[in-house]
């Protein structure tokens, strides 16, 4: 255990050791996980080992790839599965997953392929605010991936709704990371379909309410404004919903924000969507479908990734059994 603690500290901080050293260390450490999980009283040793791997992945894509090549992802899933038996602090495991989805699309896909999204629900419900924060950060990086990768998160309807709930009501550090998940879903190379599913999950209200938070970082405020701009660009009729949430007042007040980026993004929304009186039918709220949800009338989930999707009205209820083209 002392050796693993020492190794974790050697890789802690910046700059991280050379990639060749990361690779050698990872290939020696990862096989130890199987041995340690079957050794009584090894919980702290496993935690130190995981922190060492977390520090190794806190670098560029080559260091992340060096650790991923050791087969660590499947071992981390095993630890999440056995956590109730081992009583291990899973925070470093979640950090490793988060580090592995922050670099390249292929690395993000590898994390999705081992099934991490199905574990997010439990992590988002953790009593530890730090684990909830890290889980939201992980989700936000998946949302910032390709359209198909983001859809994998959206199709886990209850999990995504948990993100929406955390973006609405939690301590600030958790709420902010959840907001980043929602903003990335709207703004990172996404299509109209992603925004529609976000709206049906109730994701617009926390984005609007975040604008009223005191002492929020300008970067997060700017991202929320970007997301709202993308929502209005896709569905101009949502201005009615934003008004119901008090968003028009919040956006207008952000013209007084000392940060130029926040000011300009607020001004863009006002000039493009709030400054000119629209036709009466464009100010109506979206119609409610039979399920009581807003019907935004766009392509079905199966069409989200077609080359030339045909648009048609569909009520979508987050059926995880739907397939993608």
Describe what is shown at a glance.
The protein has 325 residues and is an all-alpha fold.
Q: Judging from the principal axes of the Cα atoms, what is the shape?
A: elongated
Main sheet overview: none
* Overall residue-averaged pLDDT value: 83
Task: Name the poorly predicted regions.
Answer: 277-282, 298-325
Measured as a percent range, the helix fraction is: 55-70%
Category from helices, strands and their pairing: mainly alpha
Helical stretch tally:
19
String of helices and strands? HHHHHHHHHHHHHHHHHHH
The total count of strands amounts to 0
How much strand?
A: under 5%
Alpha carbon gap, first and last residue:
48 Å
Radius of gyration: 22 Å
How would you explain this protein's 3D organization?
With 325 residues, this protein is mostly helical. Helix content is 62%, strand content 0%. The chain has 19 helices and no strands. The longest helix is centred in the C-terminal third of the chain and has 17 residues. It is elongated. The N and C termini lie far apart (48 Å). The C terminus is likely disordered.
Entry keywords:
disordered C terminus; 325 residues
Structural topology:
Elements: H1 2-10, H2 19-29, H3 32-37, H4 43-56, H5 61-68, H6 72-86, H7 91-100, H8 105-113, H9 117-124, H10 129-143, H11 147-155, H12 157-168, H13 172-187, H14 192-200, H15 204-210, H16 218-234, H17 239-244, H18 247-253, H19 260-274
